[in-house]
Each structure stands twice: as structure tokens, then as C-alpha cells.
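User: Here's a structure from my thesis project, written as C-alpha cells. My advisor, Dr. K., wants to see whether a designed sequence matches the one we expressed. Can you design one independently, without my sequence as a hint?
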């Protein structure tokens, strides 16, 4: 551990905190602690014990910079990375806008310059000339997912299909993004999507919580792992406020997250305090007593 801002702090924590790191590299002298393990043979076998030693060294960060890269300083490289990230994010936004524009283009315009009788994509479909004419004249212009849902109640419409597409692309939408046919939508969500934060939709999670048959138990476990691993405690707050019975998710989290109460305390949320008292306190208090 290294001494920074009047405390000995692990190097990993310093690296993750830009303020601490800048304080660290501004020092001309570095104090650090070393932990050493020793062993001794006793009547009962080998015993291990640890001791701590403290030392220091004098070195300028600029000396390290020259060894790592003699052309650019650390802050110059950092700024270049941030500029590069900014450009890539802007390019992604442009591509997403382009994609959305393609989605919004009527099928009439998409097919206008296509010969459906000879084009290789349509050759095996045997599209009749009458159907081709209807499509290109805009006489058949319903979106498939909206169209088919009129006739088959179990089908999903375009809105819900687009939601599933966003899940497949790992694009997170607002937690309260509305789904028209949530039950049918859940049946069409691929299992792999339950391992990504984009699955955190209030309606989807509530539907799974209220239908905990065998298949949905594994889905609930995956969702709880997503919340735990990505520290999505804000989703828990919104979920608790939005649904009638949120206990399945909270109870499952209580079974897989050690120290969940301490996590809730750090969030300082009335909703999380209330959920703990309603769903978790009795069970966990009993465990502590036993």
C-alpha cells in the first residue's frame, strides 16, 4: 500500500480514482507498506504469521514517464485516449441515427429500384408480378410485426420486437420502457440476454417474478446476478416503487449477496430500507442469532 493524502491506500484503489492518482504522481517521495508472510514449524505443524514493514523511495514521476514513453507525457496520452473515445462515441451516434433512418424507410422506397423477378434475394421466393406491383405502389405497406399481430394474438408487434432487438444488441433502454405484450415478449427473449444489464426492464423483471416456474427461476437468478455484478441498486429502487410485489427479486438477492444490508445503507434510500424491513430483516436476523 502507498501513502497518499494521509492514508495508506492499495495501489488498485489509487489507479481507479483519478484524484488520488494525480495526488500520488505529484509526490516526489513515496512511502509504502510491505506485507511479508513467515512460517514456523511447531508441534502442531506449520504456522504462518504476517508482519508489516514500511519504507520509502525518492523518484519523480517524470522519470517514470520518460521510461514508459519518451515522446508523450502521461497526461498527453490520457487526453489523446479521451479524445479518441469521444470521436468513437460520436461515430456510434451517427451510425445509430443512420440505422434508425433505415428502419423508418417505407418498404415502397426500399424496393423501388429492385427487380424482384431477377434479384438473387427474391429469386427463390417466387414473388408474383402483382405482389411486386402492390409493394412498389405502396398498396401493401404494413409492417410485418404489426400486421401479423392483428391476426395472431400471441405474436409480438414491431414495438416489442424492436425492444428484443435492442436486448440482442446490448443496448440499455430506460428501466420503465413500456412493453405492449410483456408476457409474450418475455417468451421471445433469448436466454443469453438475461446476462446483460440491458435486461433490466421493470415490466420484464416483474413478469418473471410473478411467474416463477422452473424456467423463470434461472432467469431471475441471472437478473439478480446482473444487479449484483453491475451494482444496479438504482434499478432496485425504481423496481420497488413501480410493482406490487417485488419480494422475489429482493429475497433472491438476499440469498446471493453477502452484506446486502451494508450496501443498502450506503445507498441511503428509503425504498431500500423499507424493502429490507419488509422482505429480508426477519430471515437474516434469524440467521445471525443461530
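Assistant: Designed independently from the structure alone:
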Amino acid at each position: 500500500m502507498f501513502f497518499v493524502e494521509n492514508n495508506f491506500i492499495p495501489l488498485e484503489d489509487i489507479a481507479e480514482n483519478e484524484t488520488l492518482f494525480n495526488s500520488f504522481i505529484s509526490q516526489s517521495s513515496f512511502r509504502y507498506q510491505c506485507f511479508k508472510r513467515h512460517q514456523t514449524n511447531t508441534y502442531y505443524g506449520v504456522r504462518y504469521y504476517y508482519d508489516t514493514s514500511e519504507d520509502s523511495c525518492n523518484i519523480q514521476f517524470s522519470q517514470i514517464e520518460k521510461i514508459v514513453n519518451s515522446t508523450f507525457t502521461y497526461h498527453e496520452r490520457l487526453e489523446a485516449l479521451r479524445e479518441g473515445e469521444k470521436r468513437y462515441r460520436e461515430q456510434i451516434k451517427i451510425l445509430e441515427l443512420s440505422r434508425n433512418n433505415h428502419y423508418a424507410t417505407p418498404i415502397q422506397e426500399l424496393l423501388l429500384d429492385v427487380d424482384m423477378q431477377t434479384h438473387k434475394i427474391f429469386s427463390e421466393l417466387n414473388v408474383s408480378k402483382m405482389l411486386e406491383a402492390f409493394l412498389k405502389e405502396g398498396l401493401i405497406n404494413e409492417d410485418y410485426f404489426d400486421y401479423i399481430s392483428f391476426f395472431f394474438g400471441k405474436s409480438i408487434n414491431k414495438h416489442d420486437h424492436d425492444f428484443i432487438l435492442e436486448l440482442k444488441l446490448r443496448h440499455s433502454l430506460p428501466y420503465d420502457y413500456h412493453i405492449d405484450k410483456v408476457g409474450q415478449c418475455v417468451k421471445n427473449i433469448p436466454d443469453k440476454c438475461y446476462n446483460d444489464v440491458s435486461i433490466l426492464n421493470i415490466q420484464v423483471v416483474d413478469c418473471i417474478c410473478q411467474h416463477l416456474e422452473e424456467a423463470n427461476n434461472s432467469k431471475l437468478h441471472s437478473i439478480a446476478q446482473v444487479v449484483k455484478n453491475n451494482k444496479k441498486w438504482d434499478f432496485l429502487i425504481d423496481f420497488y416503487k413501480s410493482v406490487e410485489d417485488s419480494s422475489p427479486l429482493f429475497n433472491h438477492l438476499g440469498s446471493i449477496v453477502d452484506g446486502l444490508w451494508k450496501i443498502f445503507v450506503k445507498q441511503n434510500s428509503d425504498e431500500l430500507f423499507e424493502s429490507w424491513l419488509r422482505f429480508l430483516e426477519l430471515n437474516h436476523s434469524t440467521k445471525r442469532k443461530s
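When you compare it with your expressed construct, this may help: Residues 63 and 94 are 42 Å apart (CA to CA).
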